[in-house]
Structure formats: structure tokens, C-alpha cells
Amino acid sequence: MVRLVANMLQRSSGPAETQTGNVVLQRVTKQFADHLAVDDLSLEIVAGEFLSLLGPSGCGKTTTLRMLGGFETPTSGTIYFGGQDVTDLPPHKRDVNTVFQSYALFPHLSVADNIAFGLRRKGQSKTEARAKVTDMLDLVDLAGLADRRPAALSGGQQQRVALARALVNQPTLLLLDEPMSALDAKLRKHMQIELKRIQQEVGITFLYVTHDQEEAMTMSDRIVVMQQGRIEDLGTPRSIYEHPGTAFVATFLGASNLMAVTALQHSGDLATISLGGGQHVSVDASALPPGVLAGDLSVGVRPEKISISAEGAAISPASNVLTGQVRVATFTGVGNQYLVATDAGGEFTVYAQNLGDAAAPRTGERVQLTWPIAHTFVVRSPKLSEESEATL
Amino acid sequence: MALDLNAPPPPRRQRKVRWLRVYSWLLIGYLTVPIAAMVIYSFNQVEGGIPQVSFTWNGFTTKWYQQWSEIPGLTDSFWLSIRLALAATAIATVLGTLLALALVRYSPRQFKGKGLIDQTLFMNIAAPEIVMGASLLGLFASLHFARGFVTLLLSHAVFSIAYVTVTVRARLTGFDGRLEEAAGDLGAKPLTTFWLVTLPLITPGVMAGALMAFALSLDDFVASNFVSGSQLPFPVWVYGATRIGIPPQVFVFGTFIFLFGLGCAVLSVVLARRQPTHGRVSTGL
Questions:
Q1: CA-CA distance, A37 to B51, in Å (whole number)?
Q2: Considering A253, B47, B194, B195, which has the largest number of Cβ atoms within 10 A of its Cβ?
């Protein structure tokens, strides 16, 4: 993928190169008895960044985390921490700490003893450890709960103890394995912001594993989208949302309207794409994946990028237009959601913000859908993208 | 007819479980009568001749408690049983706990003899003790191994290990392996993890196993009778004494043992109550 390469170039020319704390996975594969969990994965985690591994369950993201933590050994490949090969080091010899999905707090120890556990193992005295524990409890907003047992805390508090217990050791890399999956939605939102704040405050590299795309977008500097043990896409939340690299990313990360391309014609900086039903859309030529036949491509646009209006209304320049008929119109409070049968065949989902317009299109009406050419992206068609080589 | 939704609800009759109560009390009686009889008759007067227990009430006395150690053979056998039970418990608890850890921790692929050991444990529990006792006697005799404390200890440890393993394994099955991973993650070496995380968390299971081993050893008669030689543990001595009459002190020791057991049970309840799942505990770091 062009953009993956671009990302790597951007990174190697940026300030990151001077950092020595980068974590590198080089062609790492993990084969379990019955399935291939991670398939020839290469990735560089830049010191100080908040990186998310995002993907559906079984995509290999947790196995990747467990290999970084030292709980699993790769079948092949090498893992480097700041240039040092740590592939075969056991967890207790790695400068990494983990926030487990189930928190794994020691139930027989108080909150303070839980947090001090790592410091004590490094040979720090009780007094030294106690001072740091107090600071850490302040950071995660749990002052005063030092003597409680984990069972006497709420889920959110337990999660913060788990975070404090890991952070207090100031690891090179902090691994977080879906730490919010047990929290309710409201608390989760709050903790996302809190976690981002803490990460910026302590400046430690965070590797966050999640299947929740919104969570990944809210917190991450960069997101790695994984599927079937491989990297599907990698970039900042904005770049992979606006220009998804594959059809999988386009539909897994938010929603997308995708349509098969029947023909492609270059005309300067733009390329004209023919769809079914004699309809055409334009796209920036630079957005086309190189060396792919038109028949293997799909063109897409995000539902919120589309304006819906009565057929024949004025069209702003540099826009794509498709006409169609409203199948379903639903009111969701913050907006209207439409399912439109386009004249190109296929259905489009459209989100329109509720701006108080009384003249919202109704079911059965003819409409035109317009969106800026710049918001049009092209990916390989879904069934082929699985075979495509998305490796770095 | 319109229902008045605001009408107060009619009182509902609770279903009575009268028979359960009767059954419970009958069962409690059935289980405690033998012990109660022993405790009561340990305070019984004995008339004439060599004192021996009788179930004819002759009046209250604390004489047997004052003279609890007057029968040398009985006292010796009691202390022998205690020493034996402590030693056998120590051996069986350590070996049984380690075996349970290995059985839970390793898959059959990592642990080749796992299935065989499982079967052996089951066999050990299921085999009639008389068979084991006779077999041990034959074994020791053919090896010209003198019967005494060591043969008793070996036999008691052998039949206790399986019980400890089964008890500890039950506790370990619910054990969250992530806790050990977390300890390693925080820099604890495997052995440190065992002492600081694994062992404290399985201690209730280990203690239960140890108590079981202690009780099994203390009241073992069948195997002990075969391998005791000249060293007579308490149950073997009491059985021998039935031929000439049981001295009342046997009931005194019996009461001591019962009270000790009762004390353990009460202590475990108190400790379980104090174990705070909620609230504060004071800890130094």
C-alpha cells in the first residue's frame, strides 16, 4: 500500500529516528497448534506514542501484545526494544508492564501493596516505594484508597489500580489489553480521556489493544488495523478514516458506501470512474492504488460526507453526484439517516445532521447525493483485498 | 370489572418447610450422639477393680481428667500419634501440593505421565485400606525393614498425598493464571511469584488438605495395625486395650481430640468472617 510506505518514510525522517526507545517487531509470526495467530507482522512503535492495535476478535492483536509482554514466544521473527533483541526474554526480564483485560490485581494484597509490587521486586525499600505509590494514587485519582483490597473497589477503580501498578515502574512500553471492556459505556468515555491525559503526562509509550474503533480513534496517535494476523492499515486516526487502505478498513472503521468500479479513465489530476447505470464519479488520481485493474476496485465515500437534496438542485463545483430514490428515512435525533437506492445500482447510507430543516426528503422521493471529490476513496474490492499483500 | 391498581397487595403466605427442620435436627442428633456419649461418660465414676469405661452412670467425677496421664502405654501412644500425624501431614502436604500444581499447570503434552498419575491417585483413594496395609506389611517384611515409626510415617504419608492433591487441585482449578503472569510482568522471578502470589492464594486449599491428612493419620487403624510393630499409635493401642477393658482415660483423650477439632472448626469460621472482601485492612507495604 502506498500510504503504508509513505507512513514509514514520514516516520524515519521525523524526530522519531533520534529516539532510542523504539520497539520493533520484525517479521514476527506466531503459529498455534490449530491456527496462525500472527502472520509475518512487522511494526515499529515510536517512543512516546499512543498506538492502538485495532481489529475484530481473533485478528491476532492480543497475541501480538502477549509476545511483546513476553507471555508468548514468536514462532519466528524478532522483537527489539531500543535495538536490543528481547525475543526470548521472559516477562520478568523485560522493561514492559501490562494492564490486563481482567486487571489481574492480587486479591490478597491491598491497593498500595499491589502498586508497590513491581518497585519492591526491583529492590526498592518500603519507604521509597510508599512515596511513589502515593504519587501514583494521586495521578489516577485514587488517593485515600491505599489500604483497600481490590474486591472492595468498583470496576473503574480496579482498572485505575491496574494502570497505576503498571505505570509506577516507568516501563519502556506499557501494554493495555482491552482494559475498558468491563466498564460501562459512560465510564468508558470518561476513562478514555483520562487515559489519554495520563499518557501525555507520563510520556510513556502506550500500546493499546482494542476491538472498539471509536476507542482507538479517541485516544491514539496512530492506529494499526489488524485482520487475520496481518496489518491491514496503519496511520493516524484521521488518515485511515479519511483514506482507508482496504475495503475491510473502510467498513470496520466507521461505515462506508462502496461500489464496484466498471471502468477507469485518467484525465489530468482526476480519474473518472464509471459505475453501473451509466453513472460516473471522479476521484483524485493520487488516491488510486497503483497497478490494480479497474475491475478489482471499489469506490467509496463515508455516509456523513454526503449531502442529500431534491433532484435537480444546484451542485457545487468539484463534487460527485449520484441520483437515486429514498428507500428508508429515519430520524435519530441528532440527524436523519437515509437508505438511498442509487441509479448506479446498490444502496447508499447517508447521515444528515439535524439542522432544523423542515424539508428533509421523505421515503420514496427522488434525491441527488453530492459529496466533494476529495472525500472519495478507492480500495481494492472486498473479496480480493483478502488476498492482497498488505505487508510492509 | 376494573382492577384497582392502587389497592394494597394481599399478604402472601410463605411456604413452610416444616419437615426440613425436623429432618435437620434428627440428623444433627444422629451425628452427635456418639461424641456426646463419649464426652459425658468421660466424667463417669467407676466402681471397684481396674478402672474401665462403663455405660452405667455411677456419678460425676473429674478424676480421669486429673489422672489423664496415669496410663503410660496410652499416653505414649497418644504422643506417638500426634508426632506421626504432624510428620505425615508435613510430607503429604508438600508433595501433594507440588503434585497438584504440576497436574493443573501442565498440559498432557508437557507432562507425559499426567494421565498415569491421575489414575494412580484415584486408585490410591479407592483401594481398600486393608489391601494397602497387608501389601505394605509384606513389602516391609520382604525388605527386612524393621517396623516402627518410619514404616508408620511412610504408610501414613502415602495414603494422605492423594487427598491433599485432590483438595489443592480443586482450589487451583479456579485460580486465575493471569495473576502469575502479572507478577512476572512486574518483575517477579518464578519462585518469587510462587511465594508471593500462588501460595498465599491457594493457602486455604493447602490448609484444608493438611487438616485432612492430619485427621486421616491421627485416626488411622487399619494400615497402622499392619505396620506398627512395637510402636503402637493411639487407635491401635485402644483396640488392643478392648481385650482387657478400656481405661476411662481413653474417653478423656477422645474428648481432647474432639475439642481440638472443634477449636479448629471455630477458628476457621472466625478467620473466614474476618477475611475482608469489603472494607479496610491495614498493611505495611
A1: 79
A2: A253
